[in-house]
Design brief:
Pfam families: PspA_IM30
CATH topology of the largest domain: Helix Hairpins
Shape: rod-shaped
Low-confidence stretches: none
Number of domains: 2
Protein name: Phage shock protein A (PspA) family protein
Family: Belongs to the PspA/Vipp/IM30 family.
Strand content: under 5%
Organism: Cytobacillus oceanisediminis
Oligomer: single chain
Distance between the termini: 137 Å
Keywords: Coiled coil
């Protein structure tokens, strides 16, 4: 039965890894965004734990101060009872003084542990924030590279597409042919108008000359 569960687990994990590999190949930025969201959630969990640790440290501090204060109070009361010859009251106050002192010592140890744990959480939280920021910057860098890659791919696709290229060049040839025709028509029209004006001028000059 254990082997069966192991095979099932291995099969599921293999399918999952294959799906992630396929997703990464299709859209690596989307998969990176998914990883970043997961890291953000983990960082937020650590932040909440750190807040709870702050609260716990404050509670330990209050309990420690209270236990110390009560131990001091019972110590003074035991001294007063001893001076007054109240042995039973002295024993009761001394016993409570001992209990409060033991409690204060225990809380002091817990407070020290909580402070150390809080320092470790703070260090990890800051490290996670820095890593998260670095990952965001790397994502922007990768997005920029991906945009350039896609743009280059699109340009290469256009330039290497023979039908598109032929269409573009044929359009240029059409425009060049049109300009050639237009230039020819303008020149022809200019020459015709020039010849007509010259002949008319010659006719006028001939009319003015006397017939011999």
């Amino acid at each position: 039965m254990a082997n069966l569960f192991t095979r099932i687990k291995d099969t599921v994990m293999a399918d999952l890894h294959e799906a992630l590999d396929t997703k990464e190949k299709k859209n690596p930025i989307a998969l990176l965004n998914q990883y970043l969201r997961e890291c953000e959630r983990e960082t937020e969990k650590v932040r909440k734990l750190l807040e709870r640790q702050y609260t716990l440290k404050e509670e330990f501090t209050r309990e420690y101060e209270q236990a110390k204060e009560l131990a001091g109070k019972r110590k003074r009361q035991a001294e007063i009872a001893a001076q007054a010859g109240e042995e039973e009251l002295n024993q009761f106050a001394s016993q409570e003084q001992m209990q409060y002192e033991e409690r204060a010592n225990r809380i002091k140890e817990l407070l020290t542990q909580a402070t150390q744990q809080m320092g470790e959480l703070e260090r990890k939280y800051e490290e996670m924030k820095h890593k998260l920021k670095d990952m965001h910057i790397r994502r922007m860098e990768l997005m920029g590279r991906e945009n350039i890659t896609r743009a280059n791919h699109q340009m290469d696709k256009v330039l290497e597409n023979n039908s598109y290229s032929d269409k573009s060049f044929s359009r240029f040839k059409e425009i060049e042919s049109y300009l050639d025709r237009l230039e020819h028509e303008v020149k022809s029209s200019y020459h015709r108008s020039t010849i007509d004006a010259r002949i008319a001028q010659l006719e006028k000059e001939l009319e003015k000359k006397p017939v011999l």
